[in-house]
Amino acid sequence: MTERRVSVATHWGSYIAVVESGRLMRIEPKPDDPTPSPIGPGMVKAADDSARVLRPAVRKGWLNGEPRAHDTSRGADAFVEVSWDRAITLVSDELRRVRSLHGDGAVFGGSYGWASAGRFHHAQGQLHRFLALGGGYTDARNTYSTAALEVILPHVIGGHPWSYQSRMPMWDEIADNCELVVAFGGLALKNSQINPGGLARHQTRELQLRCREAGVRFVSVSPIRSDAAGFLDAEWLPIVPNTDTAAMLGIAHTMLVNRWHDEDFLRRCCVGFDRFASYLTGEVDGIPKDAAWAERITGIGRDVIIDLARRLATQRSVIMVNYAVQRADHGEQPIWMSVVLAAMAGSMGRPGGGWGAGYATMDATGVAPDRPFVATIPAVANPVADFIPVARIADALLHPGEVIDYDGRRLTLPELRLVYWCGGNPFHHHQDLHRLARAWQAPDTVVVHEAWWNTSAKFADIVLPVATSLERDDFAAGFSDPHIVAMPKVREPAGESRTDHQIFAALASRLGYEREFTESRSESEWVRHLYEQTRATLGGDAALPSFEEFWRSSTVALPPLTGPFPGNFGDLRTDPRRSPLPTPSGRIEIFSEKIDSFGYDDCAGHPKWFEPEEWLRADRSDRYPLHLISNQPASRLHSQYDNGGFSLDSKINGREPATINPLDAASRGIADGMIVRVYNDRGSCLAGVVVSDDVMQGVIQLSTGAWWDPVQPGRSGTLDRHSNPNVLTADRPCSRLSQGPSALSALVDVERYDGPLPDVLAYSPPSLDGE
Ligand SMILES: Nc1nc2c(c(=O)[nH]1)N[C@H]1C(S)=C(S)[C@@H](COP(=O)(O)OP(=O)(O)OC[C@H]3O[C@@H](n4cnc5c(=O)[nH]c(N)nc54)[C@H](O)[C@@H]3O)O[C@H]1N2
Ligand SMILES: Nc1nc2c(c(=O)[nH]1)N[C@H]1C(S)=C(S)[C@@H](COP(=O)(O)OP(=O)(O)OC[C@H]3O[C@@H](n4cnc5c(=O)[nH]c(N)nc54)[C@H](O)[C@@H]3O)O[C@H]1N2
Ligand SMILES: [Mo]
């Protein structure tokens, strides 16, 4: 038997696939990865499961139906399998029809989603190139991950939304210089399994351990204890969810009244501290934001807050915020306030101190500041200028023509007639899925490229089967990871599936622009071309080996980038005139004249405490007394490989685990391992209970990513037999500034589920007929 060992790269790490006679047998961790993710080996189980989309399929009602808009059977209908030729005709004709009748902006190609690693087969890159060459499309701006951060930070510290990643202290500097880390949202190692675009080896765990061994003390401010690894010996400060801004204000107030704050840095390197200070002291509204005030909101004792203020100001400290704290109502505030607090604390711009975001949310964040250029599928400028903020998709479908605010602009929501999704799973990632399901009935046509019959495929009109990342040649280069990893095809595509590129090339050919789309290169020529382009840009032979050698050795190191990076806080501290920040004032904007000028009632000129619509002290908590934390899953990447071995093994009776505090369980007669129903006004789902004091009282934790399995797909509010928390979350923008998603601001209750347990049908294909 011939055994082949093939290099594999994924967002959760690099592996070796073992293939025998063309069959994928196993996926093994690479020996030099100190912390391999168990998600990889579980991919084998999903490779040929019954959920694979094997042939192009068209929804029955769409094939027969006129008119197609406002057809209410999306998500409930059967499908008809068609030939590739027929599918390409249907999609290209429909694109042509919609463009000529409704204009190019009626095509929505925002298509948010993580898809798979690989520089060439980048699903969104392929789609955007295809749609831009065909006349353009309405795009989506910002990400579900960090929309609030991406919009607020350029006002506060300036620069590209992601530039903070190279301006904040790296873990090794923290180990060498820092005494105290205060992490709002914790430092969950489960999340550092992931790095967007891939990574050669995981490093966060080792680096955290190094910090601990060097004597750095950790404080984890989070509703969940396990957000900090046990070896950190972190002090756990359970906090009422969504109240981080109030906690930071309480700390800031304490610093101010005790004159522990860094007056020199605030005067020289920041603007607007005085105006913020008069809010802090209560001079403007009669409410001093002191430690006692913060205790009432956050549940963190005033003595703890005062002690934290003293330690932050007297020790070399770094204030860290994760992303979950800003995927919330008024999510801009904790980000802005964390920068202000760091500016007050005295370590900003000093080695290993100051401020940073996203540590341990991705493996390379805080590991390396950046990596050099690596070529990717070339982008084509989009002739359509219109866009929507990424999380406003249901609004756009439900209320075309409505005008919304966004970062000082007024945007008219476009009328979208054709929705094209490639590389994302909106029926996983969007909030309030019942609302999304209603919105999804509005367009004429929904086209989806998917490898599996997940919920987004089932809610589409035309489903085109795609090859997975194991079924094509490519190479990976992850965010900040200074390596390139080869991704040769491990096996042939399942059924009739094709790569996204092949599909778009066939469509472009039918639409008359194949040559422009493919540049007359085959897929393998593209992969080699992108590698050669990278090699030439980085300095040829001196920088990278030949393509053949790279393909043989599977991993090559890129020259590391060490800076100096523009806009760093050390230079600012040294001389703010010579090294201004790229903000309007050249300094850190504690008060932003620009944001103030927008006149928003939900985002003012300086950071402020705004009560969330849903939180534990809201009126609604009488009916729904638990705060839902729908965080990232430890067992997969979002919804990807929910049908993989590792995710399936983590389920309780086929449902996603939901963790609650023993006191909340006892008062409801719930015991460990039971199946429960989690519910609110928006919907309900089942889950398998884990009872643990890892989670503070008043909180229920249910990770995202279980494929939505509505009992009656056409009925709003219908029970989810499986466990998708987005049937419970609210589709409410963070604020008028960012319009970001606020998934982590939702109240629910939970009860025992004593009815007969329905089968989970999430992984079963819909009813499929032949033509
Ligand atoms: N309640 C709640 N909701 C959340 C969050 C939360 O914290 N709470 N987090 C949000 C965040 S941070 C994010 S980033 C989003 C993630 O949302 P998504 O990025 O949409 O989630 P994924 O499951 O990664 O979806 C990727 C899809 O692409 C498909 N795919 C993979 N490779 C390819 C390919 O090569 N081609 C094509 N055509 N398809 C491919 C996969 O099968 C999968 O269906 O979810 C958001 N939603
Ligand atoms: N294994 C795995 N890792 C992932 C992903 C995945 O799907 N799976 N997704 C990746 C992606 S796309 C992203 S954007 C990042 C996201 O990174 P994060 O947003 O940081 O991750 P989450 O797991 O959503 O949240 C981390 C913790 O924040 C805490 N938290 C929630 N709300 C609050 C709050 O109001 N206050 C405080 N103090 N804490 C709160 C919760 O206890 C939660 O466990 O993760 C990445 N890493
Ligand atoms: Mo994300």
Automatic annotation (TrEMBL):
Its cofactor is Mo-bis(molybdopterin guanine dinucleotide). One of its GO terms (biological process) is anaerobic respiration. Gene3D superfamilies: 2.40.40.20, 3.40.50.740, Dimethylsulfoxide Reductase, domain 2, Dimethylsulfoxide Reductase, domain 3. GO terms for molecular function: electron transfer activity; molybdenum ion binding; molybdopterin cofactor binding; oxidoreductase activity; transferase activity. Keywords: Metal-binding, Molybdenum, Oxidoreductase, Transferase. InterPro entries: Asp_de-COase-like_dom_sf, CT_DMSOR/BSOR/TMAOR, Molybdopterin_N, MoPterin_dinucl-bd_dom, Mopterin_OxRdtase, Prok_Mopterin_Oxidored. Residues 9-44 form the Molybdopterin oxidoreductase N-terminal domain. GO terms for cellular component: outer membrane-bounded periplasmic space. Residues 626-743 form the Molybdopterin dinucleotide-binding domain. Residues 52-509 form the Molybdopterin oxidoreductase domain. It comes from the Bacteria. CDD domains: MopB_CT_DMSOR-BSOR-TMAOR. Residues 567-586 are annotated as: Disordered. Belongs to the prokaryotic molybdopterin-containing oxidoreductase family. This is Asp-tRNA(Asn)/Glu-tRNA(Gln) amidotransferase GatCAB subunit C. It comes from Actinomadura harenae.
